[in-house]
Amino acid sequence: MIEDTSLEVFLNELASKTPTPGGGSAAAIMGGMGAALVAMVCNLTINKKAYEAVDAEMRDILQRAEVLREQLTGMMRQDIEAFDRVMSAYGLPRETEAEKAVRSQAIQSALKDATEVPLACARASAEIIALSRVVAEKGNKNVVSDAGVAVVAAYAALKSSALSVRVNTGALSDVSFATQSITELDVILDGADTAMREIYQEVVHRL
Amino acid sequence: MIEDTSLEVFLNELASKTPTPGGGSAAAIMGGMGAALVAMVCNLTINKKAYEAVDAEMRDILQRAEVLREQLTGMMRQDIEAFDRVMSAYGLPRETEAEKAVRSQAIQSALKDATEVPLACARASAEIIALSRVVAEKGNKNVVSDAGVAVVAAYAALKSSALSVRVNTGALSDVSFATQSITELDVILDGADTAMREIYQEVVHRL
């Protein structure tokens, strides 16, 4: 399983011409790193006298960041599985009309999964950006730069998964599903650029 | 060694309250992912009839991306080593004047290394952004979204390592070294936001 792969082997596989792991898994890992760094800042803020006033808030954020990190870790694998299913579907026989129909349905069904995984990654990443704002503003000042890395990592994950959603919805024949996905994506993306810049600036300000 | 750590264990360690691995290693990995994805697009463009005109250029970019990826993989470890050296130096005894002098010198020397590693990461990441522009514009259209992930990953690596450079130069007493580092960093950062946006737009356009 991909989560058991070493960092070096993962990078080797990412660079190779094999289609997976690709950008989708990279997006999930960047989101996972964002969540992990939000958690790290919380862990280094909780139980500290100087940050007593935000202790409860940091505990809540830690709990949420850890849930998101677990989801994103799962998405590294789900992205590969969804992509492989799309590829297998494209490889189905298409000699007869019946085969063509089966193949087409298999492709469309696989593409829906391959849309839902990056959309979930985008959703989780946007939430990590929101959490990183709170830890950047209120977390332990000594590790505020880690909050800054969290926000740019989550932003990169969001922008990356947005590309996967666009690619896969582009090949969908279910226009209503595709439109709904793109509409949700646009809502998630709205304001993300500004949020990233603002949070990063707050971090630089508190360095 | 960190490069042999599994993705899941790495994320666990990143989230924990232990100071390393932290944002510096995350930056190096994001840069490494950017380099790997540039290489992936090159690998899927080389030897293709439709991309014959850019074959030589893609081979050159592949070679350079692989050198940068190797450097960035090394930086995951170097960042941890440099950070640990800073921490050890701060832990030196400071009872006598002689001890204070030794400790202060050790801290300053360690901080210089801890500045040079993220500065090298920023330099490499900026170069990956430049390479990602070429693969986004001329690489295999079928994997153009991976070029898009490459650019946002490299951008996240650049912005992350910039924070580490600022943190560590802030504690340096060698003002000339600190100023020189920040001046180089500012040159590297100049235009990075615009480049990232332009390359990402080019990717969306070619999807």
UniProtKB/TrEMBL annotation, chains A, B:
Keywords: Hydrolase, Membrane, Transmembrane, Transmembrane helix. Residues 6-184 form the Cyclodeaminase/cyclohydrolase domain. InterPro entries: Cyclodeamin/CycHdrlase (IPR007044), Formintransfe-cycloase-like_sf (IPR036178), MthfCyhylase (IPR054893). This is Cyclodeaminase/cyclohydrolase family protein. It comes from Candidatus Methylospira mobilis. Pfam families: FTCD_C (PF04961). Gene3D superfamilies: Formiminotetrahydrofolate cyclodeaminase monomer, up-and-down helical bundle. Coiled coil: none annotated. GO terms for molecular function: hydrolase activity. The chain crosses the membrane at residues 26-46.
